[in-house]
Amino acid sequence: MTVRIGVIGTGAIGRDHARRINHVLGGAKIVALSDVNRASAEAVKADVAPDAAIFETGEALIASPDVDAVLVTSWGATHEQYVLAAIAAGKPCFCEKPLATTADGGKRIVDAEVAHGKRLVQVGFMRRYDAGYVALKKVVDSQIGAPIMVHAAHRNPAVPEQYVTPMAIHDTMIHEIDVLRWLLDDDYVSARVLFPRASARSHAKLRDPQIVILETAKGTIIDVEIFVNCHYGYDIQCQVVGEDGIANLPDPMAIPMRLGARQQSEILTDWKDRFIASYDVELQDFIHAAARGTASGPSSWDGYVAAITSDACVSAQDAEGAAVAINLPARPALYN
Ligand SMILES: NC(=O)c1ccc[n+]([C@@H]2O[C@H](COP(=O)([O-])OP(=O)(O)OC[C@H]3O[C@@H](n4cnc5c(N)ncnc54)[C@H](O)[C@@H]3O)[C@@H](O)[C@H]2O)c1
Ligand SMILES: O[C@H]1[C@H](O)[C@@H](O)[C@H](O)[C@@H](O)[C@H]1O
């Protein structure tokens, strides 16, 4: 079966996912596109999806009988409405992070999917599919003993002018919020945020960098440095300290060079390149499940927990270092 996929939001990642579905992966085809900026959908049609129909609204695309499954890759604040419409139509839906920009929005999606009675949603937490994180998880699960601490860093070389302090949580650190919970098989109970001296590239609405300290139910303490104007490159670090040893996330492959009287190797600068292989794996997983009329991988529940945790972290940004509690509701059986 070829899964007929419609893409809502054809900007940077929507275009890239459409390309990989039509030109890299198997079992699916892009048949529909929609974007509030129609020119963007037209350009993606011209470049990577010549057979796709263009729809005026995301809702019309979801309702089309020619669309079997949906990719939601529009701006974060618009995800909830489209995911709810896809669930109402009973169609598998891949939603880029964040699933919803508020915990209430995440709950509405979980409630709708539970009422539907079958998983339909996969959230785009692609790091769970990254070979480095998968290998790290194997070691954490079996070799270094129970995790005690995690030291992580998420550094972007620069962010656009409209990027403001809370986005460091719900746009950027949301990846660590999900992947570290998965890596440790644990849940968070509190969050604290510490701000060092603001870097010179901060501005009135962006205080950068920041350190988020999460405590888990099993007592692991995690520190995540988020530095979105670090200037030197796109750099993701993760070190797990266990009872018996320490495990590090491997850096991406780079050729070590001796050049100009220096030892050096390249550091990536664009997030698109850092996890490029994992996007292929996550979407292939989505296609396989969609062909069976369902979804697997990171779930609405994971997206909802990430939204609850981000809300707590954003509150903690204004709490002058005090801990903000993270209280999770009971997990519905659908997600066990
Ligand atoms: N998993 C990842 O690593 C990753 C990476 C980048 C972006 N993202 C997420 O993907 C989403 C899109 O990010 P991007 O970088 O592609 O942004 P973008 O601005 O390049 O593209 C978003 C597109 O959505 C369109 N759009 C906005 N509102 C819409 C609506 N209501 N209906 C239809 N189209 C609409 C815009 O016109 C734009 O073309 C964001 O939620 C972002 O957080 C995830
Ligand atoms: O949308 C992007 C993307 O999710 C990247 O992985 C992250 O590093 C950026 O901070 C964020 O803006």
Describe the protein.
With 336 residues, this protein is an alpha/beta fold. The protein has 2 domains: 3-127 and 277-299, Rossmann fold (3-Layer(aba) Sandwich); 131-268 and 307-335, Dihydrodipicolinate Reductase, domain 2 (2-Layer Sandwich). A 7-stranded mixed sheet has the order 12-11-7-10-9-8-15, covered by helices on one side. Strands 3-2-1-4-5-6 form a 6-stranded parallel sheet, sandwiched between helices. Strands 13-14 form a two-stranded antiparallel ribbon. Helices cover 36% and strands 22% of the residues. The chain has helices at residues 12-23, 38-47, 58-63, 79-88, 103-116, 131-142, 167-184, 271-274, 276-291, 300-317, and strands at 3-8, 28-34, 53-54, 69-72, 93-95, 121-123, 147-155, 188-194, 210-216, 221-227, 235-242, 246-248, 257-259, 262-264, 324-325. Strand 11 (235-242) and strand 12 (246-248) form a beta hairpin. Helix 4 (79-88) runs parallel beside helix 5 (103-116), helix 5 packs antiparallel against helix 10 (300-317) and helix 7 (167-184) packs across helix 10 (300-317). The longest helix has 18 residues, at 167-184. The two termini are 28 Å apart. The chain has 10 helices and 15 strands. The structure holds nicotinamide-adenine-dinucleotide and 1,2,3,4,5,6-hexahydroxy-cyclohexane (INS). Residues 8-14, 34-37, 40, 58, 73-76, 78, 96-97, 124, 126, 171, 271 line the site of nicotinamide-adenine-dinucleotide.
List the helices and strands and how they pair.
Blueprint: E1 3-8, H1 12-23, E2 28-34, H2 38-47, E3 53-54, H3 58-63, E4 69-72, H4 79-88, E5 93-95, H5 103-116, E6 121-123, H6 131-142, E7 147-155, H7 167-184, E8 188-194, E9 210-216, E10 221-227, E11 235-242, E12 246-248, E13 257-259, E14 262-264, H8 271-274, H9 276-291, H10 300-317, E15 324-325
Parallel strand pairs: 1-2, 1-4, 2-3, 4-5, 5-6, 7-10
Antiparallel strand pairs: 7-11, 8-9, 8-15, 9-10, 11-12, 13-14
Helix pairs in contact: 4-5, 5-10, 7-10
The structure holds nicotinamide-adenine-dinucleotide and 1,2,3,4,5,6-hexahydroxy-cyclohexane.
